[in-house]
Design brief:
By secondary structure, the chain is mainly alpha-helical. The chain has 3 helices and 2 strands. Helix 2 runs antiparallel to helix 3. The chain is extended.
Amino acid sequence: MKRTAEAAPLRGINSMTERTFGNITMASLYESAKSMICTPLAYVASYYSSLIDKKLSLRQTAHILNAQMAFTFTVFPVDCPLTLRFAALAWLAAALRGCKKSGLGE
């Protein structure tokens, strides 16, 4: 008798949401990490939205923060090797392109 993958589930392998570490499941761990990241980002998004009079999503806010960090790493390290400066410049170009693709360049 031939068994198919649907008829014979693998034993002993849990899905990611069913794995537990003590009393904590992976799903609850993911949700708590997500809220720890998204809560401050939401505050920053509302601050930036009030500055530019446009409603920003969390993704757009993350793009702005990425561009700000890339700009900082491009401008401020004065005596770093030239290859790192070019890497920071490439990061800045990619970050600005990401901002434009997310709808911030209008």
